[in-house]
Design brief:
The chain has 343 residues and is α/β, with parallel strands linked by helices. Helices cover 41% and strands 19% of the residues. It has two domains: 146 residues, ATPase, nucleotide binding domain (Nucleotidyltransferase, domain 5, 2-Layer Sandwich); 161 residues, ATPase, nucleotide binding domain (Nucleotidyltransferase, domain 5), CATH 3.30.420.40.
């Protein structure tokens, strides 16, 4: 339990992709401030993240975001016990901006510097809640953690803080990547996840029987075939001179993804005797996915608040706290590759 760990306030930075974020979190759970400068509108014109543009925007935004986080928490660097930063994975140019900023702050303020893996950060977003609110129950071990994002889809068994066993992962496209690619096929705007969700809310999820890749006997995922099936369906409809039923296509695709994520996660929880289920990553913001998991009563389910599903610094600060207090802090270096316990 967090209560058995020492008290500490951490200033965390996250610049792994196209969000410039800073947050101040206490004891790995209590969020005093969280500032995110999004570049979504800038990258929408490209249909995806343009790495060089992203790194330049981070340079412009990172210090104002840090200053806002401190001001919102009514704190100064002197009140901070340690500084954390995403060490990877992510876009190289974007990561360098956050890492160099964190190094400068840590050196100038004489504070410990903690490097955090971005994926581990997503899992720890489930521990975070806003200062002033009643503390929600902490996730209980052992638990099954479904990490589902734009670049990663995997099922992990988590038996204690920082203790993981990867049970399965995507063999091709991640779920979030599939959402983006299908959104482009349907001529929906970037980012694809929210666009698919909005369209699906008006559609019939049973109209198109898109395939589910179960990969029997494993907890692995594959969404490439599903994406191809949507492509063929849209091509066939266009050949017949029909207008694309966007809502129905979106709803049928979304349901196919959710069915596989849900069934495999529940199977893993049963097989490994999990007490609870944790879902994290950008796709965990999908309303239909959240409703599907919360509708079942077999396992308590922890899903972060919507603001903590996508990239943010609060999750980095939470993971950093538990690594710091348990003496498992990575040595941060621009020459070092980030360590993920499951890699």
């Amino acid at each position: 339990m967090t209560a058995s760990f020492p008290s500490a306030r951490i200033l965390a930075l996250e610049t792994s992709c196209d969000e410039t974020a800073a947050a101040i979190i206490e004891n790995g759970r209590i969020l005093h401030s969280s500032i995110v400068a999004s570049q979504m509108e800038i990258h929408a014109r490209y249909g995806g993240v343009f790495p060089e543009v992203a790194s330049r925007q981070h340079v412009l935004s990172v210090m104002p975001v840090v200053e806002q986080a401190l001001a919102q928490a009514h704190l100064t660097l002197n009140d901070i016990d340690a500084i954390a930063v995403t060490q990877g994975p992510g876009l190289a140019g974007s990561l360098v901006v956050g890492i160099n900023t964190a190094k400068g702050l840590a050196l100038g303020a004489n504070k410990p510097l903690i490097g955090v893996n971005h994926l581990e950060g997503h899992l720890y977003s489930a521990w975070v809640y806003n200062a002033g609110e009643a503390a929600p129950p902490e996730p209980q071990f052992p638990l099954i953690a479904l990490l589902v994002s734009g670049g990663h889809t995997e099922i992990n068994l988590m038996t204690d803080h920082l203790t993981y066993q990867r049970l399965g992962s995507t063999q091709d496209d991640a779920a979030g990547e599939a959402f983006d690619k299908v959104a482009r096929l349907l001529e929906l705007p970037y980012p694809g996840g929210p666009a698919i969700q909005r369209a699906a809310e008006e559609g019939d999820s049973t109209r198109f029987n898109f395939p589910r890749s179960w990969m029997d006997g494993t907890y692995n995922f594959s969404f490439s075939g599903l994406k191809t099936s949507v492509l063929y369906e849209t091509q066939e409809l266009k050949k017949k001179g029909k207008n694309l039923p966007i809502p129905d296509l979106a709803a049928s695709f979304q349901q196919a993804v959710i069915d596989v994520l849900f069934k495999k996660t529940i199977q893993a929880a049963r097989a490994y005797g999990a007490k609870e289920i944790l879902i994290a990553g950008g796709v965990s913001a999908n309303r239909a996915l959240r409703q599907t998991f919360k509708a079942q009563t077999e396992f308590p389910v922890h899903i972060p608040a919507f603001s903590l599903c996508t990239d943010n610094a609060a999750m980095i600060g939470s993971a950093a706290y538990f690594r710091w207090v348990k003496g498992q802090v990575s040595e941060l270096s621009l020459d070092a590759r980030p360590t993920w316990p499951l890699a």
